[in-house]
Write a structure and sequence with these properties.
Shape: rod-shaped
Oligomer: single chain
Mean pLDDT: 80
Strand content: 15-25%
Order of helices and strands: HEEEEEEEHHHHEHHHEE
CATH class of the largest domain: Alpha Beta
CATH topology of the largest domain: Tetrahydropterin Synthase, Chain A
Number of domains: 3
Length: 328
């Protein structure tokens, strides 16, 4: 019997010893720290890795160093222009001093929510509604700065503040919808007018370019035509220089022949034609010397016209008088 009691006591002591040993050894992860209180006094933070504690005397408090987020529910705020809005946002924070986060504040989540709410209302109260809706980034920066100033003494760093939703009153939402519709209509009209203006400018520029190109083409065509005409005249002049007077007279005679075949009753001869009359007269006179008499060309002094005359016919044998027939 005494042996059994002794054995039982030994077993109890062994179990207590094992419990104390296991309670004195703690494994701390990389993202955790242990704030050790020895008989009520803060001994600092320990970790990561294996941490040995004094059984019964040391009381550890585990602190998570990872970045945490806290959702702040919808808060009613009044803007500078007396519009009531509802705002909710998120707070991102992380512990940078494990001992201060345990010793300086009892409930960090509640304290952060309270300070965030009061800070949000103070910030929104200095901004009008349009700026609240348009300057979210500015509000986030101001909230983060002011929260960080307060939570710094708690050993917590506020890394970011993000406004998630801003809900204005229903009548304000309807007015904003109408304003947005009117603004979009105005932009559409302006865009359409700009498009028409650009199209008109493009068409006018195209017409101008077409006129320029057409004028340039006509100019080049006229230049080429003038060059061709000048070349033709030069060729004719070169050929005409080798023609003698008789050949030129024959050309004039051929021209007169064509005029005689024409049904016209009036003919206009150039001034230079009188200069060819003596040559034609000599040419015809030479022809008459070798043949019968025919009509002759009579040159009238101080006159640009010529008269074609024919020899008088013999008087008839009968009684009466004869007339002289002259061709004009």
């Amino acid at each position: 019997m005494p042996g059994a009691i002794l054995l039982l006591c030994f077993g109890v002591l062994l179990i207590v010893l094992l419990v104390l040993i296991f309670s004195a050894i703690r494994v701390v992860r990389e993202y955790e720290r242990l704030v050790v209180f020895r008989l009520g006094k803060a001994m600092g933070s320990k970790g990561p890795g294996v941490v040995l504690l004094v059984p019964i005397a040391d009381q550890p408090v585990k602190v998570d160093l990872r970045e945490q987020f806290q959702e702040i529910p919808h808060q009613t705020c009044i803007t500078k222009d007396n519009v009531t809005i509802s705002v909710d946002f998120l707070i991102y924070s992380k512990v940078i001093d494990a001992v201060s986060s345990v010793v300086q504040v009892g409930n960090f989540s509640g304290a952060a929510q309270g300070i965030a709410t009061t800070t949000l209302r103070a910030v929104i109260g200095d901004i009008i509604l349009d700026d609240v809706l348009a300057q979210r980034e500015h509000i986030n920066t101001v909230l983060r700065t002011k929260l960080d100033e307060v939570t710094e003494r708690w050993g917590v760093k506020v890394t970011a503040v993000e406004i998630r939703e801003i809900i204005p009153p229903r009548d304000i939402q309807e007015a904003m919808t109408r304003q947005m519709s009117a603004e979009r209509t105005r932009r559409a009209v302006v865009t359409e007018a700009d498009g028409k203006r650009q199209a008109a400018i493009t068409v006018a520029d195209g017409d101008r370019q077409a006129v320029i190109l057409r004028s340039e083409g006509e100019r080049q065509a006229r230049i080429l035509q003038a060059e061709g005409y000048a070349l033709a005249l030069q060729t004719i002049f070169n050929v005409a220089r080798g023609i003698d007077g008789k050949t030129l007279s024959l050309q004039y005679m051929d021209t007169l022949k064509q005029l005689g075949a024409s049904p016209a009753t009036k003919f206009i001869f150039p001034m230079e034609f009188t200069q060819l009359v003596p040559g034609l007269a000599q040419f015809i006179q030479g022809s008459n010397d070798g043949g019968s008499a025919g009509p002759s060309i009579v040159s009238v002094p101080n006159s640009t016209a010529t008269t074609l005359s024919t020899p008088a016919a013999p008087a008839p044998s009968g009684s009466g008088t004869g007339t002289e027939q002259t061709g004009s």
